[in-house]
Amino acid sequence: MIPVHLYGKMIPMSELMTQAKKANISVIEDAAQAFGTFQDGKAAGTWGDVGCLSFYPTKNLGALGEGGMCLTNQKALAEKIRLLSNHGQAQRDEHTLVGRNSRIDTLQAAFFNVLLDRFDKFQEKRKKLAGIYWQELVGIKELTLPPAAEDSNLHFFVI
Prior knowledge:
By secondary structure, the chain is an alpha+beta fold. It is built from 4 helices and 7 strands, in the order H-E-E-E-E-E-H-E-E-H-H.
């Protein structure tokens, strides 16, 4: 099952995880737009078996090019993901499965580290701007405003 957290708002993960566990279904969270969002004290991308994050420039935590990350607390799954992202090789020229080169390059990692340090400030500004939008747009009956900011990282302010 692949739940997608759109616009920085998480779907109800506690309920979904209960249902998935009962049905013995793995959960891969698409948390590309939800970095910085929490539900019941748990971060987006940490509820399922795997959480996928994107560091594409248009995300709320983006580098200046391509990049991303998979999150898991399952050792065997983490090892397989590492293999897949490094041409299927655990050590040079020893390929145990078909993989690809999907490692973040050093330059993007450097940009990402700088932006990660500023993430909380960027989020504060997003929430401040969203507050202004809510205040100024609340009286327009033709608009449906997004839910309150406390359960969203406000990746987008979608009306």
